[in-house]
Amino acid sequence: TQYAVEYAKTGRSKCSAGKACSAQIQKGELRLGTHFESEATGHNMTKYRHWKCTTQKVIESINASENGLGGLDTLTEEDKAMVEADLEKGFIEDGTESVALAAKEAEKQAKLQVRLIFFEGVRT
Question: 3-state SS of the chain?
Answer without folding.
Answer: CEEEEEECCCCCCECCCHHHCCCECCCCCEEEEEEEECCCCCCEEEEEEEHHHCCHHHHHHHHHCCCCEECHHHCCHHHHHHHHHHHHHCCCCCCHHHHHHHHHHHHHHHHHHHHHHHHHHHHC
